[in-house]
Structure formats: C-alpha cells, structure tokens
TetR/AcrR family transcriptional regulator
Amino acid sequence: MVSAPVDKTTKKHIDADTRRRMLVAAALRVMKREGIAAATTRAICAEAGMPHGAFHYCFRSKQELYAALLATDINITLDVEWPAVDPRAEPVENLRTLLRSWWSAVETDPEAQLVLSELVNLALRDPELGELPAWGHRTYLDKAVSRVDHFAAEARLHLTIDTRAFAEMVVAALGGVIDSWLSHRDATTAVETLDGFAGLFATLTRPVPDDRDHPPG
C-alpha cells in the first residue's frame, strides 16, 4: 500500500496587526477605485486575498475599519518633497511655491482626497466616529505648524501672527480649494486660487533683517 505524499508546505503565519494593516490598505484601494459604498467586507477581504472571516477576526465592525482608515496617514498633502525656497525671493513667490508643491500631492492622487472627504463626512454623521474628524484635523494642523515654521526659517520670514493661527489659515485655504476642485476638476482655477491665497498670506509676513546689512555701530 502506497501512503499519500506528505504536504510539506506550510502556510505563512500573519499576525493580527499585519492583517489589520493589509485590510486597511485593501479597503482604501477598493474605495479609491469604486467608492465607499462598494467597500463591503467581502470585497475588502477579496482585495486583500483573505477569507471573508478574516475581517471579523480583525475588526468588530465597519465603523472600526473606518476609524482605522481615518487614523492612518491618508492625507499626504503636506508630505511631498520639500520645495526649493529662496530667501532672496519675495515672500509671495516663496508662498506660491510652497502651496503649489502641496497642491501637487492632490493632483497625484485625487482618489485619495475624495475618499478622505467622504470618510470625514461619514464620520461626522456617525456617533461612533464623531471624534475622529477633530482628531484628524489636530494631527494635520500640528504637521502644518511644523512645515510653516520650517518654511519661515528657510525663507527668512517673520510671521506677524501666531504660527498656529497662520497654519490654520493655510490649512483652511488648501482644504477649501481641494473641496472646490473635487467638484469642478479645473486644475488651472485651483492653482490660480492658491496663488491668490499666497498673496494674502504674504501680507502676514515681513522679512527678517540680515545682520550683515546693519553692522553694529
């Protein structure tokens, strides 16, 4: 009697945290491709290459998945490569360069921006997710404050208002332009609007004096 061959292959164990990250990434891909409504638990698991039961092993509900999505760094607008800032240029020119560099991230992945907008609106209407939009805004604003500080130092500019207030205005302007663009998809209008905001923000700065121009008397 010939015994059956022994299957020596073993399934690679994937820990729960890794499965959660894979499902979150899969959910984002489905949402970007087909919209939030299409992101059923079955579709998400299929996208991740996992059995359907894996979803409920990692998440208690779709709300918990949405929370995980909003908690990830889905909004990458401020994470683009740092633009070339010239301290000899006019403040408006450097601000225009900065805003346009952040805008480039929107044009690179517009579907991610749409998903982010949809998720925030959904969270605002769901008591279980109600605190997430405020948390996301604070996190994004903290990052913006850091970027504005870095920009002001490189451009040798002094802000005439509090840095956080300045960053809040920048975030509001950028968010408003993104929301409008998601409706009309006119990139030229979006960039022209950002250039206009650069002019307004420039009025809230003044150049840092160069000590070499004012030697001690």
Observations:
- The first helix runs from residue 16 to 34.
- The two ends are 106 Å apart (CA to CA).
- The longest strand covers residues 157-159.
